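Most newcomers find our protein records easier to grasp once they have seen one. Sequence and backbone structure share a record, each on its own labelled line. To make this concrete, we reproduce a full record directly below:
***
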Amino acid sequence: MYSVIGVRFRQAGKIYYFDPGRLNIERGGHVIVETARGIEYGTVVVGPKQVGEDEVVLPLKQVIRVADAEDAKVVADNARRAQEATKVFREKVQRHQLEMKLVDAEYTFDRNKLIFYFTADGRVDFRELVKDLAAVFRVRIELRQIGVRDEAKMLGGIGPCGRLLCCSTWMGEFDPVSIRMAKDQSLSLNPSKISGLCGRLMCCLKFENEGYQETGVVL
């Protein structure tokens, strides 16, 4: 068994496990950890607990330290800088005449990497764009192409139900959704009725599907 805490780096983001070591860490607090992207600031959404080896990815990284008020200021400053960087990004994209739509930008906590998230209809050759951006910001630049579901998750919005999107408020990961689920629930197959803001099948079709199957209420 392993002692872990669960950390998120974005609201409704995927939960990653870390070793709390001897630190006194509680749910709702913030920590500084090392990730594949670099040093990051995360929110503890799962308090200390014991899990089996099949539930973690080894080797399990240990929490560097509990975050403090100064770290929160760094995060706020990084967010401001990332927002300013979006203006430069759009100017460079226009100059290179690339067909891509910027969705979001973020710095890692240690400000060693600047990541831009974008959507595009197909593959985009952005090698020259990366060189230009690196020359301006003098940090490692990463351009990450995302799908329409991830775009909705990042931007948020109001769903057909009148509530904030599930993907942007609490869903850590997307589950596969099929048209069969709509058929089993006797829903209209009109795309406008069963599609979310992203244009894909609504994630909530998955939520009740298991209940229909368990009770046998499937037509």
